[in-house]
Specification:
Blueprint: H1 14-50, H2 58-78, H3 80-103, H4 115-132, H5 148-154, H6 158-210, H7 219-236, H8 238-261, H9 267-291
Helix pairs in contact: 1-2, 1-3, 1-7, 3-4, 3-5, 3-9, 6-7, 6-8, 6-9, 8-9
């Protein structure tokens, strides 16, 4: 077996690191903004409830709503969600193209022409992605487009390339999909339980207030909590993520079997089958992005 075990993130073109970093920053900023806005809305509901007992608290309600408005304006103006989605899409596309080139998958099959010409086509695609990418948030890089490890993997016999690809890409990605599917299922169930508890608390609070058993009407606060929970789960889409990752994991398992059974004497067959595996991975990323597109929300 070759001494080159797999591709590391540092072996990928610098555009990958720049896009992945921009995506991570966008995600952190977007999720922080959503948490802050929902927290302020709930705070407004709580202070509004308490204002019935102490009128001066109404100012806190106004401030909380104003703060939520400012956060919403920030999200609409800065669009950290787009930085998250588009950054991930760009990073995953660069990663997929690099793996295709490294292991000789279509359209960069080893049999498709001299390495210099195929490398030129690969660089052209990376250049096209850079031109089409949003310039904001993309950091400068000093990394080469085709690193030494990528070249070493491409120069190996097809049996070595298959072993590297199966372990470093297919199995690793399949394991990640399966793990994310399980996490999504657990979080979706947990949020359903939490929201059910809020609804029960709202019902009991409203009944208690109607009967005079409690002095405060908790129904508005509970409704705000339910609404905040619904908004957060809509942002994270745990159910949809679990289904998407589960499907991709099973689909990749089928392609993995094909890769293991492939006739290694046929370089063109290897190139097409490895490209099929990459198509599964890129399809998952496209589905993930489409599910979070503003047009679908």
């Amino acid at each position: 077996m070759t001494e080159v075990e797999s591709l590391r993130e540092s072996d990928l073109p610098g555009l990958y690191q720049a896009a992945a970093s921009a995506s991570s920053r966008g995600r952190r900023r977007y999720e922080l903004a959503i948490r802050l806005r929902l927290g302020l809305v709930v705070a407004a509901a709580v202070s509004g409830m308490l204002a019935s007992l102490k009128g001066e608290i109404a100012a806190i309600t106004a401030l909380a709503f104003f703060g939520a408005l400012l956060v919403e304006i920030y999200v609409l103006n800065d669009r950290p969600d787009l930085a998250w989605y588009e950054g991930r899409a760009l990073a995953e596309t660069v990663k997929s193209l690099t793996w295709r080139y490294a292991v000789g998958a279509a359209p960069f099959a080893v049999s498709s022409g001299p390495d210099k010409a195929v490398g030129g086509r690969f660089r052209d695609q990376i250049s096209r992605l850079l031109k089409e990418s949003p310039q904001a948030g993309i950091a400068p890089t000093e990394s080469p487009v085709i690193g030494d490890r990528v070249q070493k993997i491409r120069a190996r016999p097809v049996a070595d390339r298959r072993a590297i690809y199966l372990r470093g890409r297919v199995v690793d990605q399949q394991r990640w999909y399966a793990g994310q599917a399980r996490i999504g299922e657990r979080r979706a169930t947990a949020w359903r339980v939490v929201m059910l508890l809020f609804e029960v608390a709202g019902f009991l609070g409203a009944v208690g207030y109607a009967l005079g058993a409690v002095a405060l009407d908790l129904s508005g606060t509970m409704a705000a909590l339910v609404g905040a929970g619904a908004a957060w789960t809509a942002t994270r889409r745990h159910d949809l993520s679990a289904r998407t990752y589960s499907y991709a994991s099973n689909e990749l398992s089928i392609v993995r079997d094909r890769l293991e059974d492939i006739d290694l004497s046929d370089e063109a067959c290897w190139a097409d089958t490895a490209a099929e595996a990459e198509n599964v991975i890129t399809s998952e990323n496209a589905a993930w992005r489409a599910a979070r597109s503003p047009a679908t929300q």
